[in-house]
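Protein modeling request. Please complete all fields; requests missing the sequence field cannot be processed.
Requester role: graduate student
Desired output: 3D structure, token encoding
Chains: 1
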Amino acid sequence: MDVFRNMELFVEVASSGGFRAAADRLGLPNSSVSRRIAELERDIGLRLFNRSTRRVELTEAGRLYFERCQRIANEARLAHENLSDLVQQPKGVIRASVPVDFALIYLSDLLDEFARAYPGIALHLDVSPRQSDLVAEPFDLTIRIGMPAEPNLIARKLIDVPVGLYASPVYLAAVTPPKVPQDLLSLVCLRMTDLPWVLEGPSGALKVAVQGPITANNVGLLHRLAVRNGGIVTLPMALAEPDVADGRLVPVLPQWRPTKVPVYALTETKLLPAKVRTFVDFLVARLNTVAEQNEVSSMRDHARKNTLGHNLG
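Delivered output (313 residues):
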């Protein structure tokens, strides 16, 4: 047990930049801190700090040990916090990095609900198109659209975003509306990337190498271009449904759907403080409810339009 206590003290000294600073933060005598670090060095058989009258620096072994011990010490601290959270309401500040499109489309309607349900939790959101670095930046979690590329992070899926093809009635009136996915090749498509669209339909999955003069990394911009008669676009159903209801957009090839887009919450560890675990659990539950409602609404609208068209014919 002394080894683990001294390891935690070592992390504090390394983080504070010196023995005296660590002693002041922990309320311990400076001599006790020095003695316990010396004990730890004897136990592992390596010098962890280079000491001088002016400064204390980590040795090469100390840097390696610090990288390993910091996570262990943090997870031990979180374990203690989780035990205390069992008997009280989760509380504290959550710092999260969130993509702009996801925040505007999905979170804007849920954050107030979360704040009312958990008044002890404060959310500090960095809403940005950039991908944050959980290791180098002070975030508790980051939300990523698409499959995460970092194998060292813990990923929990929040939602598979249902996506559809849409265009304005004015644009479709000016062209020959597509009847099969291959017809998209001759039409203007507004794209997030230069990659082919993958559509899933009655005959399985199909890649279509659509073209268009505009690509952008912002769904909101592509949505606005489509409403202004700019072409055919893939949009989350939650974003498109109000425009479909008001007649500004109509579904294109409704029997063919773009592949759902996964969204993940990423953390450094599985052992999360109660405030973060509560937030992630809330998002999983509410986002999937919203997605199911949007899909049901979309199918209902499509069936109603088909019935109306049949009756008029």
